[in-house]
Amino acid sequence: MSYFALASLELVLLGLLSGVAGTLIVLRRRSFFAVALSHATFPGGVVFALAGWNLLIGQALFAAVLVLAMTVLARIPGQGRQVTSGVVLSFGFALGTLLAALNPGLGVPVEALLVGSPLGVSVTDVVVTASVLVAALVLVAVFGRRMLFHTFDPVGFAAAGFRSWPIELAVTGVIAASVVVAMPAVGAILGVAVLIAPAAAARALTQRLEWIPVISAVLGIAGGLIGLWISREFSIAAGGSVGLVLTAMFLVCAAWGARKVSAR
Asked: Contact, 130 vs 15, CB < 8 A?
């Protein structure tokens, strides 16, 4: 399979993943958490690059540590999830930058960790992304109703006798895994754009919850493939091109949604 076909397949899978993980991020208002997580896994990639190991594994392991750290810190009185996410983001990004600066002979360019490259993904990257997509779909199929219940009525969810931690664990796991697998294609900085922008655009277009994942997946796939085509035709960076196309889609959808609201 050619590198362009691999890149296209990876972006299609990420587009589908935006319909699952992106919808959870947007509906549960976890955008800043996803951004913090994507940036803060930077040190894991640097350490594994120095050791000559798979970067994706390093970022995944570091993501698991950070999720645990944020969960613990969020329980401190007077602190919230947004505060802890900000602290972890600053710590992770600063540590990654320091490690990269101390090792100028790093085998993998720092830019590859930060912005990624759809045209540089491997068969392994595609397989891992597909596996995360399947796992996310299974979790949503099993816990979907409870996720929605907990999202919109956490007090009622607890009053009904349900425990919150399995839902939090499932949601956080889906988000963390999705953020990590998006990094080889679009990096730590642009990774969340691939997941969040399509879902945010879908949220602006419809108020029907059942349509948000579908619209998000369609927009995610279309934006990824259009961005990849533009990068090839005009010889520009593929990751940046995809990010800009998805951002433009969100702005158009947000404007359309605001127009419909004002017209009522």
From this structure: no
- What is residue 19's DSSP assignment? I
Proportion of the chain above pLDDT 90, given as a percent: 23
Alpha-carbon distance of 118 to 132, in angstroms, equals: 17
Average pLDDT value for the chain: 81
Tokens 């007090």, residue located? 155
Are the CB atoms for 142 and 18 separated by under 8 Å? no
Q: Using alpha carbons only, give the angle 213, 216, 221 rounded to the nearest 5 degrees.
A: 125
**Cβ-based neighbours of 91, under 8 Å, separated by 6 or more:** 40
Q: Which residues contact 47 (CB under 8 A, 6 or more apart)?
A: 58, 62, 99
- 245-256 residues labelled b (16+ CB within 10 A) or e (exposed): bbeebbeebeee
Query: Rounded to an integer, what distance in angstroms lies between the CA atom of residue 158 and that of residue 147?
Result: 12
The CA distance from 13 to 15, in Å, is: 5
Q: What is the CA radius of gyration of the chain?
A: 18
Burial class (CB in 10 A: 0-12, 13-18, 19+), 80: exposed
* Distance (Å) of CA 46 to CA 20, 21, 113, 220: 29, 25, 8, 29
Q: 235 is written with which tokens?
A: 């010889």
> Mean per-residue pLDDT for 50-67?
75
Residue 107 has pLDDT above 60, yes or no: no
Is 82 or 64 the better-scoring residue by pLDDT? 64
User: Which amino acid does the sequence have at 177?
Assistant: A
Structure tokens at 10: 């990876």
Each residue of 195-227: pLDDT tens digit? 899 999 999 998 888 899 999 999 999 999 999
